[in-house]
Design brief:
Butyryl-CoA Dehydrogenase, subunit A, domain 3, 3 domains, 8-stranded mixed beta sheet, 13 helices, globular
């Protein structure tokens, strides 16, 4: 199947199965689980026997196209694909063989759980989980305040500090004994993302669930793709905001022509930035050719452009965009989420400053 025909397939699927759900996802916190599972059944989560560059660009495109409709759902797609990334990066072949087929088919779904780890690496906060060595594995204690895309048959990854101060990364099913999930709601956006506060009260994690021990080589391997693939949300949202700006281009005697930020400005910038991002994604299997600083830079540029374009869409819409429940209002809230999700804009700026210190 050609890339263009595959794109038509994705667009058709999202138009038919996601678009009708978007108001309920945004306003009622509906978790679009059926859509996620359908994407798996349709083959969009497949990774086995595919070259990494093809996989990376296909995943980025899926996140982008989903974000054109709904960033909440695009974020869920990113969470699931990121958990698949963890399995692919791990040397735990047994766990990969056990979990990967069901994850590819959408029969099981995955969350990330490494937000705390990414902040820890940026010296922003300590690791929130402690792993105590015991016979056959670890007992894990602590709380992760925000983990998304969780449910009864879901898994997610986490990093925990051990007694020798060398962290581990492991995966855990949501039904495991000792794990309590407390649902998080009432965000200004992203309420349909099955986000929970995860309390570990002596959760037993057997050796066969450990993804990396020690964590450092694993984190270095997954971090570039983790950060870069989030750009798909910003790309999709920016194109959606451009479309909204064009919808209002002739409003009130063409008064929007006096605004300094026009849709063609955003379109030129996102087209150029998108090409850079996809070029980096296609080269992630050649780490010597990809600068992590450049990944941080494009992720930051994409988030800030999404913010700028969503704000411009609101100015172009005027009063009609200032109504609760309008698409314009939703896009502004989604843009703020892209700016605060880990790594947030402030974290990206810190990392870029530190890399040149």
């Amino acid at each position: 199947m050609t890339a263009s025909s595959d794109l038509v397939r994705i667009e058709s699927l999202l138009n038919e199965q996601l678009s009708p759900l978007v108001p309920a996802i945004d306003q009622e916190g509906l978790y679009p689980e059926s859509l996620l599972r359908h994407l798996g059944h349709a083959g969009y989560f497949s990774v086995q026997n595919r070259p990494q560059p093809e996989t990376e660009t296909a995943f980025l495109r899926l996140i982008e196209e989903t974000a054109k409709h709904c960033v909440s759902t695009a974020f869920l797609v990113w969470c699931h694909l990121t958990f698949i990334r963890y399995l692919l990066a791990s040397q735990n072949d047994r766990l990969r063989r056990r979990l990967l087929p069901a994850l590819e088919q959408g029969e099981s779904l995955g969350g990330t759980g490494l937000s705390n780890a990414m902040k820890f690496l940026s010296e922003m906060e300590p690791l929130r989980l402690k792993a105590v060595r015991t016979r056959g594995g670890y007992r894990v204690f602590g709380t992760l305040p925000f983990v998304s895309n969780l449910g009864p048959d879901h898994w997610f990854g986490f990093m925990a500090e051990t007694g020798d101060c060398l962290p581990i990364v492991a995966a855990v099913p949501c039904r495991v004994d000792g794990l309590t999930l407390e649902e998080r709601r009432f965000f200004i956006a992203l309420n349909g993302t099955a986000t929970y506060c995860c309390h570990f009260r002596g959760v037993f994690v057997p050796e066969e669930w450990v993804l990396a021990d020690p964590a450092d080589p694993f984190i270095r391997k997954i971090r570039p793709g983790f950060v870069l693939s989030q750009s798909g949300m910003a790309i999709g949202l920016t194109y959606a905001a451009v479309r909204l700006m064009r919808r209002f281009s002739n409003k009130q005697g063409n008064v929007n022509s006096y605004l300094p930020f026009q849709p063609e400005h955003a379109e030129r910038r996102i087209t150029h930035l998108r090409a850079r991002i996809y070029g980096l994604a296609a080269a992630l299997d050649r780490p010597n050719e990809v600068s992590f600083q450049e990944i941080l830079r494009v992720r930051l540029e994409a988030a800030e452009l999404a913010l700028e374009t969503a704000q411009a869409a609101l100015l172009h819409a005027g009063g009609s965009g200032f109504i609760r429940g309008s698409e314009v209002e939703r896009r502004v809230r989604e843009a703020f989420f892209i700016a605060v999700v880990t790594p947030a804009v402030k974290q990206l700026r810190k990392e870029l400053t530190r890399s040149f210190a």
